[in-house]
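User: What would this chain look like folded?
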Amino acid sequence: MPNRPLILDRVLTHGEQHANHIYLTQPVGGGQVVDYTWAQVLDQSRRMGAHLQSRGFEPGARIAMLSKNCAHFIMAELAIWMAGYTTVAIFPTETADTVRFVLDHSGASLLFVGKLDTWPQQRPGVPAGLPCIALPLAPKTDFETWDAIVARTPPLAGRPTRAGDDLAMLLYTSGSTGTPKGVMTSFDALTQAAEGIVADIRSRVGQNTENRMISYLPLAHSFERSWVEAGTLMDGRTRLYFAETLDTFIQDLQRARPTLFISVPRLWLKFQQGVFAKMPPAKLDRLLGIPLLGKLVAAKIRKGLGLDQVIAAASGSAPIPPDLIRWYRRIGLALYEGYGMTEDSSYSHASTEQHHAPGYVGVPMAGVQVRISPEGEILIKSPGRLAGYYRQPELTAESFTADGFFRTGDLGERRADGLLKITGRAKELFKTAKGKYVAPAPLENSLNAHPMVEMSLVSGVGQPAAYAYVLLAEQLRPRLAEPAVRAEVQAAMEDLLAAINREQPDYSQLCMIVVAREPWSIENGLLTPTMKIRRNRIEAAVAPELDRWYAAGSRVLWQ
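Assistant: Here's the prediction, encoded as C-alpha coordinates.
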Protein backbone atom coordinates (compact mmCIF):
# COMPACT_ATOMS: atom_id res chain seq x y z
CA MET A 1 0.00 0.00 0.00
CA PRO A 2 1.23 3.55 -0.69
CA ASN A 3 1.98 5.74 2.33
CA ARG A 4 -0.95 8.04 1.51
CA PRO A 5 -4.24 7.19 -0.22
CA LEU A 6 -4.03 7.82 -3.95
CA ILE A 7 -6.97 8.62 -6.19
CA LEU A 8 -7.66 4.94 -6.95
CA ASP A 9 -7.75 4.15 -3.23
CA ARG A 10 -10.29 6.94 -2.72
CA VAL A 11 -12.45 5.58 -5.55
CA LEU A 12 -12.50 2.10 -4.04
CA THR A 13 -13.49 3.58 -0.69
CA HIS A 14 -16.41 5.42 -2.33
CA GLY A 15 -17.54 2.07 -3.72
CA GLU A 16 -17.67 0.76 -0.16
CA GLN A 17 -19.11 3.80 1.61
CA HIS A 18 -21.44 5.19 -1.10
CA ALA A 19 -22.27 1.99 -2.95
CA ASN A 20 -25.87 2.91 -3.75
CA HIS A 21 -25.31 6.61 -4.45
CA ILE A 22 -25.72 7.56 -8.12
CA TYR A 23 -22.40 8.78 -9.52
CA LEU A 24 -22.93 8.93 -13.31
CA THR A 25 -26.02 9.84 -15.38
CA GLN A 26 -25.74 9.03 -19.07
CA PRO A 27 -28.27 10.17 -21.72
CA VAL A 28 -28.95 7.38 -24.23
CA GLY A 29 -31.31 9.10 -26.68
CA GLY A 30 -34.92 10.15 -26.82
CA GLY A 31 -34.72 11.94 -23.50
CA GLN A 32 -33.86 8.69 -21.69
CA VAL A 33 -30.97 8.32 -19.25
CA VAL A 34 -29.17 5.48 -17.48
CA ASP A 35 -27.92 6.04 -13.92
CA TYR A 36 -24.87 4.24 -12.54
CA THR A 37 -24.25 3.94 -8.81
CA TRP A 38 -20.75 3.77 -7.39
CA ALA A 39 -21.23 0.01 -6.91
CA GLN A 40 -22.22 -0.45 -10.56
CA VAL A 41 -19.36 1.71 -11.84
CA LEU A 42 -16.80 -0.26 -9.88
CA ASP A 43 -18.32 -3.64 -10.74
CA GLN A 44 -18.07 -2.94 -14.47
CA SER A 45 -14.59 -1.44 -14.11
CA ARG A 46 -13.33 -4.42 -12.11
CA ARG A 47 -14.65 -6.84 -14.75
CA MET A 48 -13.03 -4.94 -17.60
CA GLY A 49 -9.84 -4.60 -15.56
CA ALA A 50 -9.73 -8.38 -15.17
CA HIS A 51 -10.19 -8.78 -18.92
CA LEU A 52 -7.34 -6.37 -19.67
CA GLN A 53 -5.04 -8.22 -17.27
CA SER A 54 -5.93 -11.50 -18.98
CA ARG A 55 -4.48 -10.19 -22.23
CA GLY A 56 -1.00 -10.24 -20.70
CA PHE A 57 0.12 -6.67 -21.40
CA GLU A 58 3.31 -5.53 -19.68
CA PRO A 59 2.91 -3.48 -16.46
CA GLY A 60 2.29 0.17 -17.30
CA ALA A 61 1.17 -0.64 -20.87
CA ARG A 62 -0.55 2.25 -22.59
CA ILE A 63 -4.25 1.68 -23.26
CA ALA A 64 -5.88 4.28 -25.51
CA MET A 65 -9.40 5.70 -25.58
CA LEU A 66 -11.03 7.49 -28.51
CA SER A 67 -14.40 8.72 -27.30
CA LYS A 68 -16.56 11.70 -26.55
CA ASN A 69 -17.47 12.20 -22.90
CA CYS A 70 -19.62 9.41 -21.53
CA ALA A 71 -20.01 7.30 -18.40
CA HIS A 72 -17.95 4.46 -19.86
CA PHE A 73 -15.00 6.75 -20.53
CA ILE A 74 -14.61 6.99 -16.75
CA MET A 75 -15.30 3.30 -16.22
CA ALA A 76 -12.66 2.41 -18.83
CA GLU A 77 -10.14 4.71 -17.16
CA LEU A 78 -10.73 3.01 -13.81
CA ALA A 79 -10.42 -0.42 -15.44
CA ILE A 80 -7.09 0.56 -16.98
CA TRP A 81 -5.81 1.85 -13.65
CA MET A 82 -6.94 -1.21 -11.70
CA ALA A 83 -5.34 -3.51 -14.27
CA GLY A 84 -1.96 -1.79 -13.77
CA TYR A 85 -1.83 0.21 -17.00
CA THR A 86 -1.66 3.83 -18.23
CA THR A 87 -4.43 5.71 -20.02
CA VAL A 88 -3.97 7.55 -23.32
CA ALA A 89 -7.08 9.55 -24.26
CA ILE A 90 -7.37 10.92 -27.81
CA PHE A 91 -9.52 13.94 -28.60
CA PRO A 92 -12.72 12.64 -30.25
CA THR A 93 -12.52 15.24 -33.03
CA GLU A 94 -8.98 14.39 -34.15
CA THR A 95 -8.19 13.43 -37.72
CA ALA A 96 -7.03 9.96 -38.73
CA ASP A 97 -3.45 11.25 -39.03
CA THR A 98 -3.41 12.52 -35.44
CA VAL A 99 -5.13 9.36 -34.15
CA ARG A 100 -2.37 7.31 -35.76
CA PHE A 101 0.36 9.61 -34.44
CA VAL A 102 -0.86 9.30 -30.84
CA LEU A 103 -1.36 5.53 -31.06
CA ASP A 104 2.09 5.05 -32.59
CA HIS A 105 3.94 7.53 -30.38
CA SER A 106 2.42 6.18 -27.17
CA GLY A 107 2.92 2.54 -28.19
CA ALA A 108 -0.70 1.78 -27.36
CA SER A 109 -1.49 -1.91 -26.77
CA LEU A 110 -5.28 -1.61 -27.12
CA LEU A 111 -7.89 0.99 -28.08
CA PHE A 112 -11.33 1.61 -26.57
CA VAL A 113 -13.63 3.12 -29.21
CA GLY A 114 -16.57 5.04 -27.76
CA LYS A 115 -19.13 7.67 -28.61
CA LEU A 116 -17.97 9.41 -31.84
CA ASP A 117 -19.38 11.57 -34.63
CA THR A 118 -16.75 10.97 -37.35
CA TRP A 119 -15.60 7.39 -36.83
CA PRO A 120 -15.55 6.47 -40.58
CA GLN A 121 -13.02 9.26 -41.19
CA GLN A 122 -10.97 8.31 -38.10
CA ARG A 123 -10.97 4.53 -38.65
CA PRO A 124 -8.04 4.60 -41.14
CA GLY A 125 -5.85 6.02 -38.34
CA VAL A 126 -6.14 2.83 -36.28
CA PRO A 127 -3.26 0.46 -37.16
CA ALA A 128 -4.26 -2.92 -38.50
CA GLY A 129 -3.94 -5.55 -35.80
CA LEU A 130 -4.40 -3.20 -32.85
CA PRO A 131 -6.93 -4.82 -30.47
CA CYS A 132 -10.06 -2.68 -30.07
CA ILE A 133 -13.07 -2.78 -27.74
CA ALA A 134 -16.31 -0.91 -28.44
CA LEU A 135 -17.88 1.04 -25.57
CA PRO A 136 -21.70 0.94 -25.28
CA LEU A 137 -22.36 4.18 -27.22
CA ALA A 138 -19.80 3.49 -29.97
CA PRO A 139 -20.70 3.57 -33.67
CA LYS A 140 -21.37 0.20 -35.28
CA THR A 141 -18.11 -1.75 -35.53
CA ASP A 142 -16.90 -5.35 -35.72
CA PHE A 143 -15.07 -4.97 -32.41
CA GLU A 144 -15.92 -6.99 -29.34
CA THR A 145 -18.20 -4.98 -27.08
CA TRP A 146 -17.75 -3.77 -23.53
CA ASP A 147 -21.09 -5.26 -22.49
CA ALA A 148 -20.23 -8.72 -23.81
CA ILE A 149 -16.88 -8.72 -22.04
CA VAL A 150 -18.16 -7.58 -18.64
CA ALA A 151 -21.06 -10.04 -18.82
CA ARG A 152 -18.73 -13.04 -19.02
CA THR A 153 -15.73 -11.84 -16.95
CA PRO A 154 -15.52 -12.19 -13.15
CA PRO A 155 -14.43 -8.96 -11.43
CA LEU A 156 -10.96 -8.30 -10.12
CA ALA A 157 -10.88 -9.31 -6.48
CA GLY A 158 -9.41 -7.42 -3.56
CA ARG A 159 -8.23 -3.83 -3.56
CA PRO A 160 -6.04 -3.05 -6.60
CA THR A 161 -3.39 -0.44 -5.81
CA ARG A 162 -0.89 1.65 -7.72
CA ALA A 163 2.39 3.28 -6.69
CA GLY A 164 2.59 7.06 -6.51
CA ASP A 165 5.22 7.25 -9.24
CA ASP A 166 3.29 4.94 -11.60
CA LEU A 167 1.99 6.80 -14.64
CA ALA A 168 -1.77 7.32 -14.44
CA MET A 169 -2.09 8.88 -17.87
CA LEU A 170 -0.41 10.30 -20.92
CA LEU A 171 -2.12 13.56 -21.87
CA TYR A 172 -1.44 14.61 -25.42
CA THR A 173 -1.65 18.38 -25.76
CA SER A 174 -4.11 19.64 -28.34
CA GLY A 175 -1.35 20.92 -30.59
CA SER A 176 -2.31 24.60 -30.99
CA THR A 177 1.22 25.36 -32.20
CA GLY A 178 2.45 22.05 -33.60
CA THR A 179 2.70 18.30 -33.04
CA PRO A 180 1.02 17.11 -29.81
CA LYS A 181 3.34 16.26 -26.92
CA GLY A 182 2.70 13.43 -24.49
CA VAL A 183 2.59 14.80 -20.95
CA MET A 184 3.27 12.08 -18.36
CA THR A 185 1.16 12.43 -15.20
CA SER A 186 1.82 10.21 -12.19
CA PHE A 187 -0.77 8.96 -9.72
CA ASP A 188 0.83 11.07 -7.00
CA ALA A 189 0.61 14.27 -9.10
CA LEU A 190 -2.97 13.56 -10.17
CA THR A 191 -3.96 12.78 -6.58
CA GLN A 192 -2.44 15.97 -5.17
CA ALA A 193 -4.06 18.07 -7.88
CA ALA A 194 -7.46 16.43 -7.30
CA GLU A 195 -7.16 16.92 -3.53
CA GLY A 196 -6.44 20.60 -4.05
CA ILE A 197 -9.30 20.96 -6.53
CA VAL A 198 -11.78 19.36 -4.13
CA ALA A 199 -10.56 21.56 -1.27
CA ASP A 200 -10.97 24.65 -3.48
CA ILE A 201 -14.48 23.68 -4.58
CA ARG A 202 -15.59 22.72 -1.08
CA SER A 203 -14.42 26.10 0.23
CA ARG A 204 -16.87 27.70 -2.19
CA VAL A 205 -19.93 25.45 -1.91
CA GLY A 206 -19.69 24.01 1.60
CA GLN A 207 -18.11 20.90 3.02
CA ASN A 208 -21.19 18.67 3.13
CA THR A 209 -23.23 19.56 0.07
CA GLU A 210 -24.07 16.99 -2.59
CA ASN A 211 -23.22 18.68 -5.87
CA ARG A 212 -24.05 18.24 -9.53
CA MET A 213 -21.78 18.79 -12.53
CA ILE A 214 -22.12 18.23 -16.26
CA SER A 215 -19.22 16.89 -18.31
CA TYR A 216 -19.08 18.19 -21.88
CA LEU A 217 -15.64 19.74 -22.48
CA PRO A 218 -13.33 17.04 -23.90
CA LEU A 219 -12.22 14.57 -21.23
CA ALA A 220 -9.06 14.10 -23.27
CA HIS A 221 -8.10 17.62 -22.10
CA SER A 222 -6.43 18.29 -18.77
CA PHE A 223 -8.93 20.97 -17.66
CA GLU A 224 -11.94 18.61 -17.77
CA ARG A 225 -9.93 15.56 -16.74
CA SER A 226 -8.67 17.19 -13.53
CA TRP A 227 -11.51 19.48 -12.49
CA VAL A 228 -14.42 17.24 -13.48
CA GLU A 229 -13.33 13.62 -13.64
CA ALA A 230 -10.50 13.53 -11.08
CA GLY A 231 -12.32 16.02 -8.84
CA THR A 232 -15.50 13.92 -8.71
CA LEU A 233 -13.55 10.67 -8.34
CA MET A 234 -11.75 12.17 -5.37
CA ASP A 235 -14.79 13.82 -3.78
CA GLY A 236 -17.32 10.99 -4.03
CA ARG A 237 -20.34 13.21 -3.31
CA THR A 238 -20.85 14.87 -6.69
CA ARG A 239 -23.24 13.46 -9.28
CA LEU A 240 -21.85 13.73 -12.78
CA TYR A 241 -24.12 14.20 -15.79
CA PHE A 242 -23.15 13.98 -19.45
CA ALA A 243 -24.33 15.89 -22.48
CA GLU A 244 -25.94 13.94 -25.30
CA THR A 245 -25.29 16.16 -28.34
CA LEU A 246 -24.58 19.78 -29.11
CA ASP A 247 -28.21 20.19 -30.18
CA THR A 248 -29.53 18.88 -26.84
CA PHE A 249 -27.04 20.74 -24.66
CA ILE A 250 -29.52 23.20 -23.16
CA GLN A 251 -31.89 20.30 -22.35
CA ASP A 252 -28.95 18.40 -20.84
CA LEU A 253 -28.15 21.42 -18.69
CA GLN A 254 -31.79 21.72 -17.65
CA ARG A 255 -31.72 18.04 -16.60
CA ALA A 256 -28.52 18.38 -14.58
CA ARG A 257 -29.16 21.80 -13.02
CA PRO A 258 -25.48 21.89 -12.07
CA THR A 259 -24.33 23.47 -8.84
CA LEU A 260 -20.77 23.58 -10.21
CA PHE A 261 -20.10 24.61 -13.79
CA ILE A 262 -16.88 25.15 -15.70
CA SER A 263 -16.47 26.23 -19.29
CA VAL A 264 -14.09 27.85 -21.75
CA PRO A 265 -14.26 31.50 -22.89
CA ARG A 266 -15.74 30.76 -26.30
CA LEU A 267 -18.70 28.94 -24.78
CA TRP A 268 -19.27 31.62 -22.13
CA LEU A 269 -19.37 34.07 -25.04
CA LYS A 270 -21.80 31.89 -26.99
CA PHE A 271 -24.15 31.69 -24.00
CA GLN A 272 -24.11 35.49 -23.81
CA GLN A 273 -24.70 35.84 -27.53
CA GLY A 274 -27.63 33.46 -27.26
CA VAL A 275 -29.16 35.78 -24.66
CA PHE A 276 -28.49 38.80 -26.89
CA ALA A 277 -30.19 37.05 -29.81
CA LYS A 278 -33.42 37.06 -27.77
CA MET A 279 -33.00 40.52 -26.30
CA PRO A 280 -30.81 43.36 -27.67
CA PRO A 281 -27.92 44.22 -25.31
CA ALA A 282 -29.04 47.86 -24.87
CA LYS A 283 -32.55 46.83 -23.79
CA LEU A 284 -31.21 44.14 -21.46
CA ASP A 285 -28.80 46.66 -19.94
CA ARG A 286 -31.68 49.03 -19.20
CA LEU A 287 -33.77 46.28 -17.60
CA LEU A 288 -30.90 45.04 -15.45
CA GLY A 289 -30.49 48.59 -14.17
CA ILE A 290 -33.98 48.66 -12.65
CA PRO A 291 -33.56 47.38 -9.05
CA LEU A 292 -36.42 44.90 -8.59
CA LEU A 293 -37.09 44.10 -12.23
CA GLY A 294 -33.38 43.67 -12.89
CA LYS A 295 -33.16 40.84 -10.36
CA LEU A 296 -36.14 39.08 -11.92
CA VAL A 297 -34.70 39.42 -15.42
CA ALA A 298 -31.30 38.14 -14.27
CA ALA A 299 -32.91 35.13 -12.58
CA LYS A 300 -34.89 34.35 -15.74
CA ILE A 301 -31.71 34.47 -17.85
CA ARG A 302 -29.88 32.10 -15.50
CA LYS A 303 -32.82 29.69 -15.50
CA GLY A 304 -33.07 29.81 -19.29
CA LEU A 305 -29.41 28.83 -19.51
CA GLY A 306 -29.90 26.01 -17.00
CA LEU A 307 -27.50 27.73 -14.61
CA ASP A 308 -29.92 28.94 -11.95
CA GLN A 309 -28.63 26.43 -9.37
CA VAL A 310 -24.93 27.21 -9.93
CA ILE A 311 -23.06 28.10 -6.75
CA ALA A 312 -19.60 28.28 -8.31
CA ALA A 313 -18.73 28.90 -11.96
CA ALA A 314 -15.31 29.06 -13.56
CA SER A 315 -13.62 29.76 -16.87
CA GLY A 316 -10.29 28.34 -17.92
CA SER A 317 -8.14 27.02 -20.78
CA ALA A 318 -7.78 30.44 -22.45
CA PRO A 319 -8.09 34.15 -21.53
CA ILE A 320 -11.62 35.47 -21.07
CA PRO A 321 -12.49 39.13 -21.74
CA PRO A 322 -12.89 41.02 -18.43
CA ASP A 323 -16.14 42.61 -19.63
CA LEU A 324 -17.63 39.14 -20.11
CA ILE A 325 -16.89 38.27 -16.47
CA ARG A 326 -18.53 41.55 -15.39
CA TRP A 327 -21.62 40.76 -17.48
CA TYR A 328 -22.09 37.33 -15.87
CA ARG A 329 -21.67 38.76 -12.41
CA ARG A 330 -24.28 41.36 -13.30
CA ILE A 331 -26.81 38.62 -14.03
CA GLY A 332 -26.01 37.02 -10.68
CA LEU A 333 -23.52 34.31 -11.73
CA ALA A 334 -20.30 34.44 -9.73
CA LEU A 335 -17.93 33.64 -12.59
CA TYR A 336 -14.25 33.29 -11.68
CA GLU A 337 -11.25 32.84 -13.93
CA GLY A 338 -8.47 30.34 -13.32
CA TYR A 339 -5.18 29.34 -14.88
CA GLY A 340 -3.46 26.03 -15.36
CA MET A 341 -2.02 23.83 -18.05
CA THR A 342 -1.63 20.19 -18.98
CA GLU A 343 1.85 20.19 -17.49
CA ASP A 344 0.55 20.95 -13.98
CA SER A 345 -2.68 18.92 -14.15
CA SER A 346 -4.55 22.24 -14.57
CA TYR A 347 -3.71 22.96 -10.94
CA SER A 348 -2.11 26.37 -10.63
CA HIS A 349 -4.18 29.53 -10.02
CA ALA A 350 -7.81 30.30 -9.16
CA SER A 351 -9.76 33.43 -8.35
CA THR A 352 -11.53 33.47 -5.00
CA GLU A 353 -14.21 35.60 -3.36
CA GLN A 354 -11.44 37.47 -1.54
CA HIS A 355 -8.98 37.64 -4.44
CA HIS A 356 -10.39 38.32 -7.87
CA ALA A 357 -10.39 41.03 -10.50
CA PRO A 358 -11.48 40.94 -14.14
CA GLY A 359 -8.40 40.41 -16.28
CA TYR A 360 -6.59 38.44 -13.56
CA VAL A 361 -6.52 34.65 -13.27
CA GLY A 362 -6.39 34.45 -9.49
CA VAL A 363 -3.87 33.56 -6.83
CA PRO A 364 -1.76 30.41 -6.40
CA MET A 365 -3.73 27.38 -5.24
CA ALA A 366 -2.62 25.46 -2.16
CA GLY A 367 0.92 24.14 -2.52
CA VAL A 368 1.66 26.09 -5.72
CA GLN A 369 4.72 28.32 -5.96
CA VAL A 370 5.07 30.98 -8.64
CA ARG A 371 7.57 33.58 -9.72
CA ILE A 372 8.19 35.77 -12.75
CA SER A 373 11.54 35.38 -14.54
CA PRO A 374 13.63 38.44 -15.49
CA GLU A 375 12.28 37.97 -19.03
CA GLY A 376 8.69 38.14 -17.76
CA GLU A 377 7.94 34.41 -18.07
CA ILE A 378 5.65 32.77 -15.50
CA LEU A 379 7.43 29.96 -13.65
CA ILE A 380 5.32 27.45 -11.72
CA LYS A 381 6.04 24.70 -9.20
CA SER A 382 2.81 22.74 -8.72
CA PRO A 383 1.95 19.54 -6.80
CA GLY A 384 0.33 18.40 -10.08
CA ARG A 385 3.53 18.76 -12.12
CA LEU A 386 4.25 16.44 -15.00
CA ALA A 387 6.75 13.61 -14.70
CA GLY A 388 8.09 14.65 -18.10
CA TYR A 389 7.33 14.56 -21.80
CA TYR A 390 6.98 11.01 -23.09
CA ARG A 391 10.00 9.94 -25.15
CA GLN A 392 11.34 13.53 -25.17
CA PRO A 393 13.96 13.77 -22.38
CA GLU A 394 15.67 16.80 -23.95
CA LEU A 395 12.42 18.77 -23.98
CA THR A 396 11.74 17.69 -20.40
CA ALA A 397 15.14 18.94 -19.25
CA GLU A 398 14.85 22.34 -20.94
CA SER A 399 11.33 22.89 -19.59
CA PHE A 400 12.47 23.24 -15.98
CA THR A 401 14.70 25.69 -14.15
CA ALA A 402 17.60 24.37 -12.08
CA ASP A 403 15.47 24.60 -8.93
CA GLY A 404 12.49 22.73 -10.41
CA PHE A 405 10.12 25.44 -11.66
CA PHE A 406 8.26 24.71 -14.89
CA ARG A 407 8.77 27.21 -17.69
CA THR A 408 5.18 27.88 -18.77
CA GLY A 409 5.97 29.95 -21.86
CA ASP A 410 3.34 32.44 -20.67
CA LEU A 411 4.21 36.04 -19.91
CA GLY A 412 2.67 37.66 -16.88
CA GLU A 413 2.79 40.08 -14.01
CA ARG A 414 1.71 39.82 -10.37
CA ARG A 415 0.05 42.31 -8.07
CA ALA A 416 1.15 42.78 -4.49
CA ASP A 417 -1.79 40.67 -3.31
CA GLY A 418 -0.67 37.73 -5.48
CA LEU A 419 -3.20 38.10 -8.31
CA LEU A 420 -1.66 36.99 -11.59
CA LYS A 421 -2.29 38.58 -14.98
CA ILE A 422 -1.41 36.77 -18.21
CA THR A 423 -0.01 39.25 -20.71
CA GLY A 424 0.77 36.88 -23.58
CA ARG A 425 2.71 33.89 -24.82
CA ALA A 426 6.45 34.24 -25.25
CA LYS A 427 6.32 32.25 -28.50
CA GLU A 428 3.46 34.39 -29.85
CA LEU A 429 5.38 37.67 -29.67
CA PHE A 430 6.21 38.93 -33.14
CA LYS A 431 8.08 41.83 -34.69
CA THR A 432 6.63 44.14 -37.29
CA ALA A 433 8.84 46.07 -39.71
CA LYS A 434 9.16 48.70 -37.00
CA GLY A 435 11.48 46.31 -35.17
CA LYS A 436 9.61 46.10 -31.86
CA TYR A 437 7.81 43.12 -30.38
CA VAL A 438 4.01 43.04 -30.35
CA ALA A 439 2.13 40.86 -27.85
CA PRO A 440 -1.08 39.68 -29.54
CA ALA A 441 -2.97 38.45 -26.44
CA PRO A 442 -3.87 41.86 -24.89
CA LEU A 443 -5.03 43.14 -28.28
CA GLU A 444 -7.08 40.00 -28.88
CA ASN A 445 -8.68 40.31 -25.45
CA SER A 446 -9.77 43.87 -26.29
CA LEU A 447 -11.20 42.74 -29.63
CA ASN A 448 -12.99 39.73 -28.13
CA ALA A 449 -14.69 41.95 -25.55
CA HIS A 450 -16.78 43.57 -28.31
CA PRO A 451 -20.26 41.99 -28.56
CA MET A 452 -19.99 41.68 -32.36
CA VAL A 453 -16.72 39.70 -32.19
CA GLU A 454 -16.61 35.98 -31.38
CA MET A 455 -12.87 35.37 -31.80
CA SER A 456 -9.84 37.19 -33.14
CA LEU A 457 -6.22 36.81 -34.15
CA VAL A 458 -3.61 39.57 -34.19
CA SER A 459 -0.55 39.08 -36.39
CA GLY A 460 1.74 40.90 -38.81
CA VAL A 461 5.21 39.38 -38.71
CA GLY A 462 7.55 41.62 -40.71
CA GLN A 463 4.67 43.79 -41.93
CA PRO A 464 4.47 47.59 -41.65
CA ALA A 465 2.03 47.21 -38.74
CA ALA A 466 -0.05 44.57 -36.98
CA TYR A 467 -3.48 43.59 -38.28
CA ALA A 468 -6.51 41.99 -36.64
CA TYR A 469 -8.41 39.12 -38.22
CA VAL A 470 -11.82 38.70 -36.59
CA LEU A 471 -14.65 36.19 -36.67
CA LEU A 472 -17.99 37.90 -36.12
CA ALA A 473 -20.58 36.68 -33.64
CA GLU A 474 -22.58 33.72 -34.88
CA GLN A 475 -25.95 35.48 -34.99
CA LEU A 476 -24.52 38.29 -37.15
CA ARG A 477 -23.02 36.15 -39.91
CA PRO A 478 -26.24 35.12 -41.69
CA ARG A 479 -27.38 38.77 -41.84
CA LEU A 480 -24.31 40.33 -43.45
CA ALA A 481 -26.03 40.36 -46.84
CA GLU A 482 -28.42 42.99 -45.44
CA PRO A 483 -26.95 46.42 -46.33
CA ALA A 484 -28.04 48.00 -43.04
CA VAL A 485 -26.46 45.23 -40.94
CA ARG A 486 -23.23 45.31 -42.92
CA ALA A 487 -23.02 49.09 -42.58
CA GLU A 488 -23.60 48.81 -38.82
CA VAL A 489 -20.83 46.22 -38.48
CA GLN A 490 -18.49 48.32 -40.63
CA ALA A 491 -19.02 51.37 -38.41
CA ALA A 492 -18.66 49.33 -35.23
CA MET A 493 -15.38 47.79 -36.38
CA GLU A 494 -13.99 51.22 -37.33
CA ASP A 495 -14.90 52.54 -33.87
CA LEU A 496 -13.38 49.44 -32.24
CA LEU A 497 -10.13 49.89 -34.16
CA ALA A 498 -9.88 53.52 -33.12
CA ALA A 499 -10.67 52.73 -29.48
CA ILE A 500 -8.01 50.01 -29.26
CA ASN A 501 -5.35 52.11 -30.95
CA ARG A 502 -5.91 54.99 -28.53
CA GLU A 503 -4.69 52.66 -25.76
CA GLN A 504 -1.62 51.37 -27.64
CA PRO A 505 1.86 52.74 -28.28
CA ASP A 506 2.63 53.46 -31.92
CA TYR A 507 4.48 50.20 -32.58
CA SER A 508 1.60 47.93 -31.48
CA GLN A 509 -1.30 49.82 -33.06
CA LEU A 510 -3.47 47.91 -35.52
CA CYS A 511 -3.54 49.15 -39.09
CA MET A 512 -6.75 47.31 -40.00
CA ILE A 513 -9.43 44.85 -38.98
CA VAL A 514 -10.18 42.07 -41.49
CA VAL A 515 -13.53 40.32 -41.13
CA ALA A 516 -13.27 36.55 -41.75
CA ARG A 517 -15.46 35.09 -44.48
CA GLU A 518 -15.69 31.51 -43.15
CA PRO A 519 -16.20 30.36 -39.54
CA TRP A 520 -13.26 28.95 -37.60
CA SER A 521 -14.05 25.49 -36.30
CA ILE A 522 -12.58 22.29 -34.96
CA GLU A 523 -13.72 20.56 -38.16
CA ASN A 524 -11.77 22.84 -40.51
CA GLY A 525 -8.69 22.64 -38.31
CA LEU A 526 -8.59 26.30 -37.28
CA LEU A 527 -9.56 25.60 -33.65
CA THR A 528 -8.16 23.07 -31.21
CA PRO A 529 -10.54 20.53 -29.63
CA THR A 530 -10.85 22.96 -26.70
CA MET A 531 -11.77 25.79 -29.10
CA LYS A 532 -8.57 27.79 -28.89
CA ILE A 533 -7.32 29.28 -32.15
CA ARG A 534 -4.66 27.36 -34.06
CA ARG A 535 -2.56 30.45 -34.70
CA ASN A 536 -0.11 28.91 -37.14
CA ARG A 537 -2.84 27.40 -39.31
CA ILE A 538 -4.89 30.58 -39.49
CA GLU A 539 -1.81 32.64 -40.35
CA ALA A 540 -0.86 30.14 -43.06
CA ALA A 541 -4.39 30.20 -44.49
CA VAL A 542 -4.42 34.00 -44.92
CA ALA A 543 -0.76 34.41 -45.98
CA PRO A 544 -1.61 34.58 -49.73
CA GLU A 545 -3.97 37.50 -49.07
CA LEU A 546 -1.67 39.69 -46.95
CA ASP A 547 -0.22 41.74 -49.82
CA ARG A 548 -3.71 42.58 -51.06
CA TRP A 549 -4.88 43.52 -47.57
CA TYR A 550 -2.01 45.89 -46.91
CA ALA A 551 -2.19 47.41 -50.41
CA ALA A 552 -5.90 48.19 -49.96
CA GLY A 553 -5.15 50.75 -47.26
CA SER A 554 -8.59 50.28 -45.66
CA ARG A 555 -9.30 50.40 -41.94
CA VAL A 556 -11.89 47.61 -42.19
CA LEU A 557 -11.69 44.91 -44.85
CA TRP A 558 -14.08 42.10 -45.71
CA GLN A 559 -12.24 38.93 -46.67
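The radius of gyration is 24 Å. If you want, I can go into more detail on any region.
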